[in-house]
Please model this.
Amino acid sequence: MDTLQTSRRGFLKSGTGAALSIGFALPLAGLSGRLDAATPFSPNAFLRIGSDGQVTVICGSAEMGQGVLTAIPMLVAEELDADWKTVRVEQAPVDKAYNNPMFQMQATGGSTTVRAFWEPMRQAGAAAREMLVAAAAAQWKVPAAECRTEAGQVIHKSGKKLGYGTLTAAAAQLPVPATPVLKDPKDFRILGKRTRRLDTPGKLNGSAKYGIDAQVPGMLVAVMARAPQPGAKPAKVDDSKAKAVKGVRQVITIPSGVAVLADGYWAAKKGRDALAIDWDLGAAKDLSSAKVSAMLAEGAGEPDAVAVDLGNTKDAAATGAKSVDATYEAPYLAHACMEPMNCTAWVQGDSVEIWVGTQSQGPNQGILSQVASVTPAKVKVNTLMLGGGFGRRFAPDFTIDATLLSKISGKPVKLIYSREDDMAAGFFRPASVTKFEAVLDSQGRPTMLKAGVGSPSIMAASGFMKIPDNGVDTFAMEGIADHPYDIANQRLAYGRKEPGPQVWFWRSVGHSQNIFFIESFIDELAAAARQDPYEYRRALLGKQPRYRGVLELAAQKAGWGSPLPAGVFRGIAVAQSFGSYVAEVAEVSIGADGTPKVHRVVAAVDCGMTVNPMTIERQIEGAIVYGLSAALYGRISFKDGRVEQGNFNDYPVLRMNEMPKVEVHIVPSTEKPGGIGEPGTPPIAPAVANAIFAATAKRLRSLPFDTAQLKKA
Amino acid sequence: MVTLNVNGKAKSVDAEADTPLLWVLRENLQLTGTKFGCGMALCGACTVHLDGKPVRSCSTPISAAAGKKITTIEGVGATRTGKAVQAAWAKIDVPQCGYCQSGQIMSACALLAEKKAPTDGDIDGAMSGNICRCGTYNEIRAAIKDASVTLVKGA
Model:
């Protein structure tokens, strides 16, 4: 694939010669989109086959590194029996045909793409295959049942062969089968095979186009001084110095901040830095991290929304042999995608066009139609590559800002947030304080578990979700409310508190902090019971074969219990998220200055049937790095209402010299596919914390790890 | 007007002398393979070569680049080292989101041009200024070693 282009543009360019295209509306109730001979290249399509045999798969999900531009074509190609070498991929425009069936909107997140499109994409390929077979059989005047397909050819039992490209014109005249027969997974030739990514070549020579690379003739570049808190207003703006910067064209105040529009980024950034703004922070002006902690601790202490109420925690507390209590805390986090948020927008009359790397192509169409007062059909979203997403690019702040600036200026505008404005102005992983109480019986087994989670609500902040009637924000409790351990009496509850900063989805969402909490606390229970933390978990997972499967595989591959070099210790953790099960064993030593060094991580993953094992390995590895950066360094803190971090100097992330060896082992499975973009993140922080405990007998209950506590005296 | 030598060609650009090379490459010359990440030489996404040495173009004013040979990701494949590195990156299939990879490749090329068979310590030293949020560090290390084999063989 050389460059990404929308399918309509691709169609216009390659609109000669016969081609077969298959389209249908989702959610799928069979293949409903009958081919229309007059419009054989409908953009409402997932697949196009050229008369040269070229197979083009059109992907409605956004590529942010997670591999969808390869996974979606693999799904189609498998059932089509395509020759993989002839398969290319295009990014889809916004159309309801590309709605993610798990979201009912065209959006990419929640590790859903393979889960949501596993069947629809295979059906698209299978339907095309049946039509090609029927076309070949008709040409040969033989029964279709005497034909098979392989690598882009229909093959008759006599040995006659026809390439797909020669059959497209005839196949396009045939009815689309309503219920194409899907392969038995044991016959897969492409799915489950390690496959190089289709988007790699352009990422090695600078030709891949990301949102920030969009070029529109006559555009201005905008850099903003973004409001430091949601709702903060610029009480006084002095833009005289900004306007004096050579190349600055206009200064515009919009609800989210003050923008400087210039001929290029450098002039716009100089202009932005020359703005003098008195911000009215409103209620947020006294916000500090200490206040956040106190508020959340209050929520954790008196949680009123009960997610799980099992047995009788009071009686269990009275009859236990030993009790264990602990309070954990995790901070707000920024996503810190490599590519700062940006969007190029052009509002012209009654239409809007944007060029952007976004996880929410569909919702943006609706949102921007309101921003610019045009009909949704008049908003064209061009999806370019995303330089990282991690949930941050699900938010529409940068598309709204760019659209407003274009509308007001009358020019095409490329808005680029500076790294500092990107980091400081919101959309954080929520902070959380969580209190646990547990009671063990005389054998050390837990008979009671209580959890109180004090945290803000992503559902309330999202703008498109509602907290359920029981008051439990699903994201605030996930990983704790659905923990797998066999404990008879439980009360797991949520105490919503809203300190103010804008919260948002962050790779693995609630699991990112909750699995640290509960997998550390389970380790505490094992220690209190004087049992091996691996064996302790194993015993409590008797009814959970998939958890137990990954736990045992990770332990076995890591050589759990075998000797390690002097000073190196192991920790283990296990979690399920997004339909996939992951266990990780971390090998850690502690430097004299207290700095933990992670030498190796052994991960086992059960994500059901696999599409591309190479992507699975890389996503688990990358998710470990993401979680490890947060565990070691990640913290967004507040002082006087403002974020204290701004760039990679004060918001450090893992670098090459700190990178552990990572091994990923995949459990063979015939279960339906689980997600893979996020599930590797949750277990790493507790696996490392548990290894630190093994090394030092110190239990670190806050993130990021306070290494001062580990300093050798 | 400032004249820059970019990927072997002389280019005249109309830009202020303090403008970082990054923005001149991206905006004046439309060479968008070099990426903006932090603006403070902290992440390495903007790495290019000046006379073969890796520099952070976000913090290098064009006044400091004039008169030197500038090589970007678009041009590095013309060198023997660049070709070997890109081939190794393709073989290992290194990128995920790919945004940092231009800078990673430029840093790796500078390392290998200096030292055909770098040790792990050399790799740490040369590559720790380049952040990858997708976490492809082990694949980058493997690709550098793979390219090293090619380059040593060819010596």
Notes: Residues 1-44 of chain A have pLDDT under 50 and may be disordered. Chain A touches chain B through 65 residues (CB under 8 Å).
